[in-house]
Amino acid sequence: MVNGAAAIAVCFPLITLITAWPAQAASASAGALPVEVVPWLLAQTPVEQAALQRQRAALLYNQGDLAGAAALLEPALAAYLAGSDPNQIQQTASFLGLVYAELGDAAVDSGSLAVALNYYQQQIDTLAVGFNRAAEVEALVNAGQVAAQQGQTALARQYLETGLSIAQEVGNPVLIQQVQSLLDG
């Protein structure tokens, strides 16, 4: 509180600020001044805006709105990529990669293999900028398996060979064995 006087209530999608000064606190209507502020006006820089978008995406993700979360995380990641904080890039890319993976899994479960492959490709692209090479291999494996289910064997092989190459770079024997068994099978 500033000078022991301010009370702030936060509500989405609008943020309401109510300020009551100590001398007027006894009367709710006497000193209260409601002000509505749209969330994007609170963020002064693209990085601050990205932080707000990531917070809102977390809320949507927890509510099961994966598409809504992805729609907020995409511009947040772009803002972080324009900056220079590798930690924020990693966290946001990992979160967005997780969202794409879950969207891809849901598409596979519903039998929409082309949609699933698109989400897995988006996951691969996102994880590639986020420095998480092991997760990128898992995304390549998912994409390869879906491409194989679609009968696109050349594409499936390409995904798996790329995954094997990355797994070897990372030096992860479990991933290497997993991808190699898929290529041999």
Largest sheet: 3 strands, antiparallel
What would you call the shape? globular
Whole-number mean pLDDT: 82
Helix content: over 70%
Strand order of the largest sheet: 1-2-3
Query: Count of helical segments?
Result: 9
Strand content is: 5-15%
Q: What is the N-to-C succession of helices and strands? A: EEHEHHHHHHHH
| Distance between the first and last residues' Cα | 64 Å
Q: Give me the count of strands.
A: 3
Poorly predicted sequence stretches spanning 5 or more consecutive residues:
1-30
How would you classify the helix and strand content by structural class? Answer: mainly alpha
Query: Rg from C-alpha positions?
Result: 23 Å
Describe the fold and architecture:
By secondary structure, the protein is mainly alpha-helical. It has 9 helices and 3 strands, in the order E-E-H-E-H-H-H-H-H-H-H-H. The chain has helices spanning 28-31, 39-42, 46-62, 66-82, 86-109, 113-129, 133-149, 153-170, 173-184, and strands at 6-9, 15-19, 35-37. A 3-stranded antiparallel β-sheet has the order 1-2-3. A hairpin with a 5-residue loop joins strand 1 (6-9) and strand 2. Helix 6 packs antiparallel against helix 7. The N and C termini lie far apart (64 Å). Residues 1-30 have low confidence and may be disordered.
